[in-house]
Amino acid sequence: MIESDETNEAVDSRAERLAANWRAVREDIALAARNAGRDPAEVRLVAVSKRHPASDIAALARAGQVDFGENYVQEVASKQEELQNLPVHWHFIGGLQSNKAKFVAGRFELIHSVDSLKLARVLHNKSQSLGCTQSMLLQVSLCGEEQKCGVEPDALDALVEEVLGLEHLRLCGLMTMPFAGDDPEAVRPVFARLRSLRDGLEQRFGVSLPELSMGMTGDFVQAVEEGATLVRIGTRIFGPRL
């Protein structure tokens, strides 16, 4: 009985810490938005819950968090099954290979990391077979790092034209992963460039691309100030990954 009480106290303490971290991040997002003359409601927080247990997601959902980001197909499938009764939205934010895409289509509100026509076609075909339309973003490589996934800017128009022709995909905007560094101001131009690329695509193709997924724990303030509508934050909420 004592052990059970201690376990419950530990769970409650963890939930309280997560909720406090979450509220602090939301306050920082709101402040960054207001400083940029934006409505804080324009920015959605995607809590990056990869490698954290389903109990953490449940605790944050009870606090009011809605959007959760995951990277690994098997891990998220287990969480979705366990948490199927919670009112949460799932985002796939990790690198995605075409041989795994069929397991992702239809399971996520938004896929952030589409970076090739081959991948887009696999997602489209699977979505078609499921009778659904999959919302997605194109990941753009803006830092010249080979290890970073993403379509190069000079190939973006051609990919957008092809994706817009796939009726079971809904292109909602762009995503980028900036280079890692200690100075968040150093990546501000990357965020500004992504916004500029999005604006140009809207004009050239006559479409609305409302979403810009950019900014993580170390640089989300700069991302919000440059127009992010989705910020992907894990460590500041959950602490170090398991």
From TrEMBL:
InterPro entries: Ala_racemase_N (IPR001608), PLP-binding_barrel (IPR029066), PyrdxlP_homeostasis (IPR011078). Keywords: Pyridoxal phosphate. This is Pyridoxal phosphate homeostasis protein. The modification N6-(pyridoxal phosphate)lysine is found at residue 50. Its cofactor is pyridoxal 5'-phosphate. The keyword Cytoplasm does not apply. Residues 24-240 form the Alanine racemase N-terminal domain. It comes from the Bacteria. Pyridoxal 5'-phosphate (PLP)-binding protein, which is involved in PLP homeostasis. Belongs to the pyridoxal phosphate-binding protein YggS/PROSC family. The lineage of its organism: Bacteria, Pseudomonadati, Thermodesulfobacteriota, Desulfovibrionia, Desulfovibrionales. GO terms for molecular function: pyridoxal phosphate binding.
